[in-house]
Write a structure and sequence with these properties.
Helix content is 77%, strand content 0%. It has 6 helices and no strands. Helix 3 runs antiparallel to helix 4 and helix 5 packs across helix 6. It is globular, with a radius of gyration of 15 Å.
């Protein structure tokens, strides 16, 4: 795997871990509201269709776009990598507002697991000097 594709894979992997932590947090909240845990298929349906999970679709879409680019046959240039890193920064750290930003900030404030996964992505973005 070439260096640029490897950098995209690293970003995708870290975002996927963050997504998993956020999804688990939402699953627990849903379980607290409904009184029963969702089955795997139900959780997938909730992620795709339920308004309470809609804020996670931004990060889901970013991961899907990264993975599509990683798996493509054409070359991955540094400009593609830089653009992907900027998009991750915009989504997670820009303070731009919106539903994702509001819900993400709340998740950061109440979950050490989210903070740790966020720090892992942030370390990668800092290393790439995104947002400076």
């Amino acid at each position: 795997m070439d260096l640029a594709r490897g950098r995209l894979r690293d970003l995708s992997d870290r975002l996927l871990r963050l997504h998993a932590v956020l999804l688990e947090r939402e699953r627990r909240a849903w379980e607290a509201r409904t009184g029963s845990p969702p089955a795997s298929q139900e959780l997938f349906r909730l992620l795709l269709e339920d308004p309470e999970f809609s804020w996670l679709r931004s990060i889901s879409s970013l991961i899907a776009a990264l993975d599509e680019r990683i798996d493509a046959d054409d070359a991955v240039g540094d400009d593609v990598v830089e653009s992907a890193y900027r998009e991750a920064y915009r989504l997670l750290k820009s303070g731009a507002g919106g539903e994702f930003q509001e819900r993400y900030l709340a998740a950061l404030q109440d979950s050490p697991d989210v903070v740790m996964a966020h720090a892992d992505v942030s370390k990668l973005l800092r290393g790439a000097r995104v947002g400076e």
